[in-house]
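A favour, since you know our structure tokens better than I do. Could you add the entry underneath, on a fresh line?
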Amino acid sequence: MPFRLPCLSQLVATAPLLRSYTFGRGAAIFNSQENDRLTQLLSQLDVAGVSNPKLDNLINFRGPDDPESRALFTQSEHVAAADSPHLNLLFNNRPEGTLDKDETRRTNARNYHASFRRKLYFEGDESKLRDRGLPIPAELLPYRQFDRFMQFISTKTDPDAKLRDLLTLAISKSERIYNETVGREKLCLRSGGSRRSQTKAFYAFPASDFQVTVEDIGQQAEYIEYLPNCIYYRPLDKTASLEIPIDLFEVLCRIHEGYVPTASEIQTFFLNLDMFKRRLTCRPSDRIILTDDDTNLFEVSRTPDLKLAMTKLGG
């Protein structure tokens, strides 16, 4: 991930030619069909593929020359209006109603909507958008947690272990541990028992035994421009490691907030998590958590005198 998309806004503001490639007719830099690797990566961040109902409603009913539309953009001599004729052409040649089946006009409507969203991302005035109750440019990205992800990538610090605890709880929730206190204090991983069994068992590892970090490439960073593209969640002894790119980070943050991932998301994003889980569960654990209703949790732990003790968790 040797790029940071918001930096492109400075180039777009001073280069009309690049602007035409950014949100114009071809939108070349967001075209996933291009052979260029950087273009394919940028296409994953295309703001045209995100929905914001209130903003989308305004785009649909207000043309590019409408005062309400023009009021959303930065007014500067560095922002050229070279794209206005093209946007007006698309807007004025959209379908005339729901019964209009002309495919060319439908394509114009889709292109206008996509172009306007891209233009708003690069040239939108954040204060004006806030005043209208519309999403600011950063909120147009397909990743809600992009700023949090980039903040840790940039600072490499985790004050009060908040990010570690967030990821611990999110992984525990993905394993069907819904008690937030237990899931935050212990990384809970489902054992390999039958999914039909009424009683569920989980390996429990103290969250304090884990850390979040980024990969250090050593002295090479002094000679090449480098930006890590993932976060690593790993035990302190580094015997296992969970690689968390932005896609998995986004899903884990949503799980932390209560989202239940679909089967396709689990299959796509959780391969790294499954491999990490397999390595951890091979480690000796002195405690397990049992439940038969996902609410009442009991911890079975080994005492110093090699006996077993059962404790109810969560009061």
In short: The beta strands are 186-190, 200-206, 210-213, 230-235, 242-245, 287-291, 297-302, 308-313. The first helix runs from residue 8 to 14.
